[in-house]
Design goal:
The complex is a heterodimer of chains A (488) and B (315).
Chain A lengths: L22 H12 L1 H11 L2 H14 L7 H27 L6 H15 E2 L4 E2 L2 H22 L5 H21 L16 E2 L2 E2 L3 H24 L1 H11 L1 H6 L4 H27 L9 H14 L4 H18 L2 H19 L4 H25 L13 H6 L19 H19 L3 H21 L5 H19 L14
Antiparallel strand pairs in A: 1-2, 3-4
Helix pairs in contact in A: 3-8, 4-8, 4-11, 4-12, 4-13, 5-6, 5-11, 6-11, 8-9, 8-11, 9-11, 12-13, 12-19, 14-15, 15-18, 17-18
Chain B lengths: L2 H32 L6 H18 L10 H28 L8 H22 L4 E2 L2 H4 L5 E4 L2 E4 H23 L1 H11 L1 H6 L4 H27 L1 E2 L3 H16 L4 H25 L9 H15 L14
Antiparallel strand pairs in B: 1-4, 2-3
The chains are: A mainly alpha (488), B mainly alpha (315).
């Protein structure tokens, strides 16, 4: 007895699920489309590509109109360069899932190549419309060459080879005489298009902006192309992709080279914007920062990566200013709690409120029994620091004469905080974990006011590191990425 | 031929190689079990070096130690091993365990975050200055083996012997004990091991403890022989350790030992001779170039390393 396929009624389109989407995924997508973020995302997905590009580029285009200080405009240029870098890294890391740890070296290569074709030291002055494409091609070729050394480009081997390449890059740039070692190359000629020099900061901003628009358009089309689909297929299942006759190795090398090329463009824009290049501008800290940018917004999405780069660069800038740092710290902290603890809805608010109350109680008790614990004053000068002055514990004598923390108390509190966070993860019951979170958050605020605020340069990287770990554990898809469904 | 120089370079290479081998071992063990590159491994070594430094200062410093020197060294190494062991367990618990089922790139990014966090925490706690063990005050440079061209400071012998002892102990642990068997089973097939009643999580935690303890010991040994430590030293040792593991065959214990010695010797010899070979064009800092070329050569010709088996993909 042969089973007949159920006959379809004529003239009525059958309710067929889209290929590759099963019932579970469809229902998850439906649930998501009911939320605000989901609706926004759908609207963004449905918009025509040109509109999307405009929506993405518009805030950058009008940014200089609202800014009157050179400092902020410079931050804008840096931000755009970081966006370019994050977009480049996203090709290999986000779309294909390759761990490229030498990415910053390509950025540095681009910058040094620009210095090599347009500086008094090199004795050449190429025009930018020739230099930038040439550098892009040269750096992409270097990326191709490096990638091809790791024969099968198995992720882990590639990570080690590229990491070593970064180290080698630093060693050569610091020690070689032809790059003038740690002194770097200075007095780099400004960009010059068709005989016209870009002199103003605004000009640099718009040149970088133009590069951003071109790169986004290029990446969008690339992602929509056959190649882009193949890349994503490799990320999902390399073996299956290979069995579908995709040239996996060549595709990976291509992604690697495209990413390197974009980094080269970013470098070629960075060198003239700074006017000088130094080897230690391109170190592993920068690499991890760029990874944080890619991951925060959501690896794989052009929109997410752009937003992530802007967010991280803006907060890094703000964190280096003690006045703004506290705002970023408290706003980001409260925001993270509210985002992470959404179920049940009141949990986040309850914990934030509980922490505030807990702090006042502890402060009151300390004032009564141990006045020495609150006699100090905060290092921060922002209004938020004045507000928390009567909330956190500020033992006297933590800040020494030269304005740096003297150590013991603040450092012990820092170690205690790390230990407390670890202990918190050992608590199984969600209720007790939430209860335990309150004193830990309060301790974090105390450590921030007492120790971290005094050393913003170090503190901001501690925060970035902690954010990366936390993000990977709780929300690996980033702020805007789609949750990946693992097929077991 | 300058025999004295060659012998001295070989001694240097063996010392350096022992350290790399210890790093490579911890790295390789974790890789074998979790298929995970623990990129924060070098920073664990750095923390170990700082713990050793702390123990040294606590017991009176190098000039005026309050206990016998050999007890002091043992205590420094043990302190660093225990401290780093727990640090490794914490890293696993915090950064890697939530990501067991995540895409492969996720724990690597998490590891980058851990690395940044640890480095800057140490920077925050100890400042950016280089710290020194002042081991020349601890043990006089003249004490040691002097035999023909061979002049070896006793601390170098300590490094080599203790590294060798730890490797042998590890080898015995992995090949002879029940825990070792459980480790091998978990590395071979985690799910099958779990079905055979092995508590896989516990095995992974112990592996992290042992691997990180080895890195901690390596950190103290580095401090003893090479003097100064700082918050970013972990990057270089971690990188060379990874390279040693890859060259030796990632996931293999004898491979890690052999790879470590190989890379250590290659680095020491190229430090000594690269200037002669290139007629002064490249200074000794370019020894990394030689090691990198070795790595690339292995990637091209024998990606599974000296002792590794070719990687067969299963569907």
């Amino acid at each position: 007895m042969s089973t007949q396929p159920p006959e379809q009624k004529q003239g009525e389109p059958a309710e067929q699920p889209r290929i590759g989407i099963d019932e579970w995924v469809a229902s998850a997508a439906e649930r998501r489309s009911r939320t605000l973020a989901g609706r926004f995302e759908e609207a963004y997905e449905r918009a025509p590509p040109a509109l999307k590009l405009v929506a993405l580029a518009l805030p950058f285009a009008i940014f200089p109109l609202f800014v009157d200080s050179d400092y902020l405009l410079q931050v804008g240029v840096d931000t755009l360069i970081f966006v370019l870098l994050a977009l480049g890294l996203n090709v290999a890391a986000g779309w294909v899932g390759l761990l490229d740890l030498g990415f910053v070296a390509f950025f540095g290569l681009g910058a040094y190549l620009y210095a090599a074709v347009a500086s008094p030291y090199a004795g050449r002055h190429w025009e930018a419309e020739l230099a930038i494409p040439a550098i892009a091609v040269a750096v992409a070729a270097a990326g191709f060459l490096l990638g091809s050394t790791s024969r099968r480009l198995v992720g882990d081997y590639l990570a080690i080879v590229t990491l070593f390449f970064l180290q080698l890059w630093l060693v050569v740039m610091v020690n070689a005489s032809f790059t003038r070692g740690p002194n770097g190359i200075s007095d780099i000629y400004p960009l010059e298009f068709f005989g016209r020099e870009v002199v103003s900061l605004e000009g640099y901003y718009y040149v970088t902006f133009a590069a951003f628009v071109l790169v986004v358009a290029f990446l969008y089309l690339l992602n929509r192309s056959r190649t882009g689909r193949a890349w994503r297929a490799i990320r999902e299942d390399e073996l299956a992709a290979e069995l579908m006759t995709m040239p996996v190795n060549r595709l990976k090398l291509m992604a690697f080279a495209v990413g390197a090329g974009i980094a080269g463009v970013a470098g070629a824009l960075y060198a003239p914007a700074q006017g000088a290049v130094f080897p230690l501008n391109f170190d592993i800290v920068l690499l991890i920062t760029i990874y944080a940018m890619v991951v925060l917004g959501g690896a794989g999405s052009i929109f997410g990566v752009t937003v992530g780069a802007v967010l991280i660069n803006a907060s890094l800038e703000a964190l280096s200013e003690p006045d703004d740092a506290s705002w970023v710290f408290y706003v980001a902290g409260v925001g993270a709690i509210l985002v992470l603890l959404r179920r049940p809805r009141w949990a986040g608010a309850a914990i934030v409120g509980g922490t505030v109350v807990f702090g006042f109680v502890v402060h009151e008790l300390a004032e009564r029994w141990r006045p020495s614990l609150v006699e100090g004053s905060t290092f921060g000068t922002a209004r938020v620091d004045e507000l928390v002055d009567s909330w956190v514990l500020l033992p006297e004598g933590i800040i020494t004469q030269d304005g740096l923390p003297d150590g013991a108390t603040g450092k012990l509190a820092f170690l205690g905080l790390v230990a407390a966070v670890l202990a918190l993860t050992l608590i199984r019951s969600p209720l007790w974990r939430a209860v335990g979170l309150v004193p830990v958050l309060y301790l974090a605020a105390c450590v921030w006011e007492n120790l971290l605020l005094a050393q913003p340069a170090t503190a901001r990287f501690i925060l970035i590191g902690a954010m990366l770990v936390g993000l990977m554990a709780f929300r690996p898809q980033g702020l805007f990425g789609q949750q990946r469904v693992e097929v077991v | 031929m300058d025999w004295d120089k060659l012998v001295q370079l070989l001694v240097n290479g063996v010392t350096l190689g022992s350290v790399y081998a210890l790093v490579a071992l911890g790295f390789s063990m974790v890789y074998g079990i979790l298929k995970l590159l623990n990129l924060a491994h070098g920073d664990v070594l750095m923390v170990g070096a700082f713990i050793g430094w702390g123990v040294l200062g606590w017991l009176g410093g190098a000039q005026d130690p309050s206990v016998a020197v050999w007890i002091l060294i043992v205590l420094m190494v043990l302190g660093a091993m225990v401290g780093c062991g727990f640090l490794g367990v914490a890293i696993e618990r915090f950064a890697y365990r939530p990501l067991r089922r995540a895409p492969r790139i996720a724990p690597l990014i998490s590891a980058l975050g851990v690395s940044l966090f640890i480095q800057n925490s140490v920077l925050l706690l100890f400042g950016a200055n280089f710290r020194s063990y002042e081991s020349f005050d601890l043990v006089d440079v003249e004490v040691g083996v002097h035999w023909g061209p061979l002049n070896v400071w006793i601390l170098r012998i300590v490094v080599f012997v203790s590294a060798a002892a730890m490797m042998i102990a590890l080898w015995l642990l992995v090949s002879r004990t029940k825990l070792g068997k459980a480790m091998r089973a978990t590395a071979f097939d985690r799910e099958a091991a779990a079905m055979m009643g092995i508590d896989v999580d516990r095995v992974i935690v112990k592996t992290f403890f042992i691997g990180s303890a080895l890195a901690g010991a390596a950190g103290v040994l580095v401090g003893l022989v090479f003097g100064s430590i700082n918050h970013f030293m972990g990057f270089n040792y971690g990188l060379k350790g990874f390279t040693a593991a890859v060259v030796g065959g990632i996931g293999s214990i004898p491979g890690a030992m052999f790879g470590g010695l190989f890379i250590g010797l290659a680095e020491a010899l190229s430090v000594g001779y690269i200037e002669d070979v290139t007629f002064g064009r490249l200074g000794s800092a370019f020894s990394d170039l030689v090691v990198f070329l070795i790595l690339v050569a292995f990637m091209l010709l024998r990606p599974q390393g000296i002792f590794g088996k070719p990687d067969v993909k299963k569907v």
